Structure formats: C-alpha cells, structure tokens
Amino acid sequence: MSSRRSRGTTRITDEQIAELVSKLQQLLPELRNHRSNKASASKVLQETCNYVRSLHKEVDDLSDRLSRLLSTIDDDSPQASIIRSLIN
Asked: Does the keyword Cell division apply (predicted)?
C-alpha cells in the first residue's frame, strides 16, 4: 500500500501535505514563532509527537491532582458539587 494513499483510492497531493504540515506547525508552540516561516515536515511531525506527549502528561497530572483534591473533601460539600458540575 502506498504511503500516499488513504482508504480507497483518494490521493493526497504534495501540495495538500505541505498545507497540512504548515497548518500543524501553526498549532505547535515550539514552532509557531519559528524564525523562518517553514520548518521541515519531519521537524513538524517530531514536535507534534512531543507536544501530544506533553499534553497527555499534563492531563494525567491534572487528573491526579483532581483525584487528590476530591479525596480530601466531603462528597456532600458545596465544593464537591462545584467540582462535579465542572467535570460534567
């Protein structure tokens, strides 16, 4: 299977890939203010992986902190009610 093919026979052009990489670059804090407007596709993909990993870690850390916080308050307290409403 070709690396340029998605499911079926739809082909992605080099221009479409370049545009997607450029859009992705704009989402990455490490590359958004990059000196040159263009980073290599491999650099953008590498930074994307790093950024997604850091976001996963941040979510895990925040989940742990929330769990610890919830374990210290009474389930029927106003604080617990506020936290539950924010989560849902």
From this structure: no
